[in-house]
Write a structure and sequence with these properties.
Layout: H1 5-8, H2 25-34, H3 39-50, E1 54-62, E2 67-74, E3 85-92, E4 95-101, H4 111-127, E5 162-163, E6 184-185, H5 198-211
Antiparallel strand pairs: 1-2, 2-3, 3-4, 5-6
Helix pairs in contact: 2-4, 3-4
């Protein structure tokens, strides 16, 4: 069942989906129950599918016995220099007859196979598209440099920043009292805590424009 993917996959593999087996979520649910796939594997497989870790989806058909093969690669992360996991499934009369994965749990129903069949192949079957969509390159998409790396990083006023030394943990050294507030912070303050009454400012400007017509005011 865990045969080498490259040895059994037909030569005529393609990104065209005309031979992709038609399946529904009911078929997928039946396959998972028969093979006793754990719930954790189903959840991880869904995450792999949603986050785009399934790459190079291909379909092939062996004309001698009408067996359909699907295969893909599942990268461990978005680093392309890491060796991916190789997945393959074979179908005959819309039923799974063989499946393999190069991971340690490839003999059984690992979360990679769940991601390949449960979601990727079923997703393409549901969409009824002719070929695997091309993945757009980063240079052909709008730039995203302005987006923050995480929700925890945001601009802050300089007056609220405190510059301090890192507190290193001393191993076996004498314990010293820590100050409540350390570091260097801004000591700027507003010399005019109470602004004049807005009504007084309006009356002053109106009187000044009447008495001194050539004077320019910046408001």
């Amino acid at each position: 069942m865990a045969a080498n993917a490259s040895s059994v996959f037909p030569i005529g593999r393609t990104r065209l989906l005309k031979d992709n087996p038609e399946m529904t979520m009911k078929d997928v649910d039946t396959f998972v129950k028969l093979n006793k796939a754990p719930q954790s594997g189903i959840v991880k497989g869904y995450k792999f599918f949603c986050e785009g870790f399934i790459k190079d989806f291909e379909v092939g058909k062996r004309e001698e016995d009408e067996t359909v093969f699907i295969r893909a690669r599942r990268f461990k992360s978005f680093r392309k220099n890491e060796e991916p996991h190789y997945l393959q499934m074979s179908f005959y009369n819309e039923e799974v007859v063989d499946h393999s994965c190069s991971c340690k749990a490839g003999q059984g129903i690992c979360n990679h196979k769940v991601a390949l069949m449960m979601y990727q192949a079923a997703h393409y079957s549901f969409l009824k598209i002719d070929a695997v969509p091309e993945v757009p390159s980063k240079t052909s998409m709008p730039q995203e440099w302005h987006k923050p790396r995480s929700a925890g990083i945001h601009p802050e006023a300089v007056d609220n920043l405190i510059v301090r030394k890192p507190e290193l943990k001393s191993e076996g050294g004498p314990k010293c009292k820590k100050r409540a507030i350390g570091g260097v912070e801004s000591n700027l303050y507003n010399p005019m805590p109470n602004y004049p009454n807005p009504e007084f400012i309006r009356e002053f400007l109106a009187r000044a424009k009447t008495d001194y017509k050539e004077t320019q005011f910046c408001t």
